């Protein structure tokens, strides 16, 4: 007899965020290494599709909050949403401000996040 499995999809997967490698993210942020940051940010965004609402037609406000909280959970990183879909590109970009302590020196970085209404968020740059 063959086993029978039923697969059920639900929204709980939507809010699952893959654990970020905090060490890689910190190093990437300190030395502004786009590739390292991109790899870690991709982990944070992969299960966060847009969920448009009347108050958020783009559908990523909550996702940006989830990502910011995940970054903030890394020891030594302070993260906050600097602006949501405020950079008028196509698609618009959001910005997350991150502060890092590097050997007693506070470093501040802004990461740019592509914020499309039809796809997941995507890391697009650092300054």
SSE topology:
Blueprint: H1 22-31, H2 34-45, H3 61-72, E1 77-87, E2 93-102, E3 105-114, E4 122-126
Antiparallel strand pairs: 1-2, 2-3, 3-4
Helix pairs in contact: 1-2
Describe the structure.
A hairpin with a 7-residue loop joins strand 3 and strand 4 (122-126). The protein has three helices and four strands. It has a four-stranded antiparallel sheet. Helix content is 27%, strand content 28%. It is α+β, with helices and mostly antiparallel strands.
Low-confidence stretches are 1-14
Largest sheet descriptor: 4 strands, antiparallel
Estimate the strand proportion. 25-35%
Classification by helices and strands: alpha+beta
Overall mean pLDDT stands at: 88
Order of helices and strands: HHHEEEE
Return Rg in Å.
Answer: 16 Å
Helix content: 25-40%
Number of helices: 3
Order of strands, widest sheet: 1-2-3-4
In one word, what is the shape? Answer: globular
The termini sit apart by: 60 Å
DSSP summary, beta strand count: 4
Quick overview:
The protein contains three helices and four strands; from the N terminus they run H-H-H-E-E-E-E.
Keyword list:
28% strand, single chain, 4 strands, 3 helices, 27% helix, alpha+beta
